[in-house]
Each structure stands twice: as structure tokens, then as C-alpha cells.
Amino acid sequence: MKAGIVVDKGKIEIIEADEPDLAQYPEGTIKIKTELSAICGSDTPKFTLDQDDYPGRLGMSIHEAIGTVAQSNSARFKPGDRVLALPRQIGGCSEYYLSHEDVTVRLVDFHSQEQILMSQPLGTVIWAARKLGSVINKDVVIFAAGPIG
Asked: What's the average pLDDT block by block, 10 residues per block, for the chain (149 residues)?
């Protein structure tokens, strides 16, 4: 399979890598063929700042991805299911990535897959807003960039 890997500051290479072998992972793991992924703000330091650990993680750090289940050892997901899933071990900049049923949701048929993909970072924003508490009658500044900002 093809996968992206950060090999130096600002340099990403697409390499040929072995597909993950589902038999080596615990029950509930699913192998997903990537269709769409996004670069989160938390991904950018991995390829814009000097790091001590080049090359980076296979598939980069990309953790927002949509795809179709290719193989499954989960009772909840079967091959052919379209899912939004948090990549594990291999990042979402790869032809295939692994996820677990606990961090995967089956997708509904919707006209904009890009909007569905952004529901993952939206969940982060909602979690942060709930943690913040009430801001009624308080001065608030929201300062951020990117899809979460």
C-alpha cells in the first residue's frame, strides 16, 4: 500500500509499505480503506517543526479519516461498511489504516462527505465547550485557526 511519512522538516514522502495484518491485532479491530482524510491543527507541528524522531509515523499523524471497512474482526462492523474512524498504529494518510470499534461510527448516506469528516473535530469543540461551562453574561474571546477554530 502507499502511505505518507514525514522524513524531515517540511518533507513528506509517499512510500510503499506493507498493509496491516488484522490477525496481529485484538478483537474489535477493523481495517479501513481510506477515502478521505483531513489535516488537523495538531498534525501540522509534525511536519513544520524540527523533530528528533524522523522518520515519523507511517501514514503521518493524521487522525481524521473516512473510509470503507476492508476487513473486520469486530461484531459491530463488516466489510463494505462506510465509517468515520480514528486511525490507530497507522495514520490516515495511507491507503489502509486500522481502527477499533470503540472509536468508529457507521456513516449515513449524506451528500457531503467533507462535512461528515469535519464532525470528528466538531466533537472536540463540543467537548471543550461543555468543559468550559456557562459563559452567559461573561466576556469571552475565541481565538483559533483551522477547522476547530
From this structure: 88 92 93 87 73 78 87 96 89 91 87 72 76 85 66
Amino acid (one-letter) located at 29: T
Long-range contacts of 76-81 (CB under 8 A, 24+ apart): 76/28, 76/101, 76/104, 77/30, 77/101, 77/104, 77/106, 81/106
DSSP string, 65-86: EEEEEEEE--SS--TT-EEEE-
Q: How far apart are CA 87 and CA 60, in angstroms?
A: 10
- Give the single-character DSSP code of 115: H
Total length of the chain: 149
Retrieve residue 137's grid coordinates. Answer: 453574561
Task: Give CA angle at 114 (45, 80), nearest 5°.
Answer: 105
- pLDDT at residue 148, as a whole number: 64
Cβ neighbors of 4 (< 8 A, separation 6 or more) are: 12, 13, 14, 15, 59, 60, 62, 91, 93, 94
> Strand (E) positions, 41-135?
64-72, 82-85, 96-100, 104-106
